[in-house]
Amino acid sequence: MREIGDIVRAFEGRPREQFALATLVGSRGSSYRRPGARMLIAANGRTAGSLSGGCLEGEVVERAREVLRTGVPALMEFETRRRFGCHGAIEIFVEQASHTFLAELAADFHARRSSVVETVFAGDSSGTRIARDTKDTTELAFVQTIIPPPQLLVVGDGPDSIALRVIAEALGWRVLDIAHATELRGPFDRWTAAIVKTHNYGRDFAALRALLPLDLPYIGLLGPRRRREQLLGDLADTGLTAGPNLFAPAGLDLGGDSPESIALAIVAEIQAVLTGGSRESLRDRRVPIHAKIGEELAGAH
After folding, report:
1. Is residue 163 assigned to a domain?
2. What distances in angstroms separate CA 133 from CA 125, 129, 145, one per listed residue?
3. What's the CATH code of the domain at 183?
4. 178 and 79 share a domain?
5. Does 164 lie in the same domain as 107?
6. 13 lies in the same domain as 37
7. How far apart are alpha carbons 51 and 143 in whole angstroms?
8. One domain, residues 125 and 205
9. How many domains does the chain have?
10. Most buried by CB count within 10 Å: which residue of 103, 224, 265, 291?
11. Is residue 291 part of a domain?
């Protein structure tokens, strides 16, 4: 999810510079990244985003610099079975990035709007653009929906807030620190999660009373189950009931009780909820790693 933000920041930092855009448009078998992964490349070789675990970016950068010199796009094919042991093959389309596309992508990113991105990688009309209506997309093009990055509301402070911010921002999430429920300023979208951790019963009650009506996909609460039941009982007296989007106690059972371990467990649970992850060990799955990805979220990784 982070790479779109990195691409936007790279473009906005040098808006008059010409960039190449590399898009993973097809894959067969196993691959580290899925179609929709993108990388922005400057003429000096600087990059934003990624296409693999680092095994083929160098070759893509060299081809991108050639594309920038000639203006001729290229479709690169990598057979990963023999070269990298990944048992698959991928196709990467490299083009001169349209300033119009990058500017529109940046505008959608900052406004927290989904972007339908179409990449045509064959013929005279090849290139990447924003399609404002899915009906406008070209047949046989690679079409990707890029959603806004997750937004995490952290209600309350403490040592674990620092760890939450570090881990969430490493994933490209936006983190908003909120000391008290009165500071909540919406509207909040369906890519917004909240964690309540004021360590004060009254402030936790006020925060849940403000958050529960918002129908966020994830609301987490720190504290033991007995405290949760008391809070839910008091909230019920006000006419509010919690739904399946309340996770209390918050977090997956990863072990550890340090602020960093707690933050990791919470962020991992939010990630699974937002992406429809199974929360099971990949070792125990009997289907491909990427077999289950939410329809809208497929292009966000």
Report:
1. yes
2. 18, 12, 11
3. 3.40.50.720
4. no
5. no
6. yes
7. 17
8. no
9. 2
10. 265
11. no
Same structural domain, 170 and 183: yes
Q: Read off the pLDDT band of 133 (50, 70, 90).
A: low
Residue keyed to tokens 């939410």: 294
Q: Nearest CA to 40 among 69, 72, 12? A: 12
Q: What band does 2 get if pLDDT is binned at 50, 70 and 90?
A: confident
pLDDT bucket at 109, cuts 50 / 70 / 90: very high
- pLDDT range class, residue 31, cuts 50, 70, 90: low
Give CA–CA dist 244/13, Å, rounded: 42
Rounded to whole angstroms, how far apart are CA atoms 88 and 30? Answer: 5
pLDDT at 23 over 70: yes
For residue 28, give the H/E element and its range. strand 19-29
The reported pTM is 0.83
Q: Which helix (H) or strand (E) holds 235?
A: helix 225-236
Return the half-sphere exposure (C-beta side, CA atoms, 13 A cut-off) of residue 106: 16
Domain of residue 217 covers 151-275
Q: Which of 112, 146, 180 is the last residue of a domain?
A: 146
- For position 89, what pLDDT does the model report? 81
pLDDT in tens, 53-102: 777 889 999 999 999 999 999 999 887 666 555 667 889 999 999 999 99
Place of tokens 């990791």: 264
Q: Final residue of a domain: which of 146, 169, 184?
A: 146
Q: Residue with structure tokens 């908003």?
A: 176
Amino acid at 178: I
Residue 166, classed as helix, strand or coil, is helix
**Residue 78: φ, ψ to 5°:** -120, 120
Q: Which amino acid is at 162?
A: I
Q: Which amino acid is at 149?
A: P
Alpha-carbon distance of 97 to 160, in angstroms, equals 41
Nearest CA-CA partner of 299 in 142, 93, 175, 188: 142
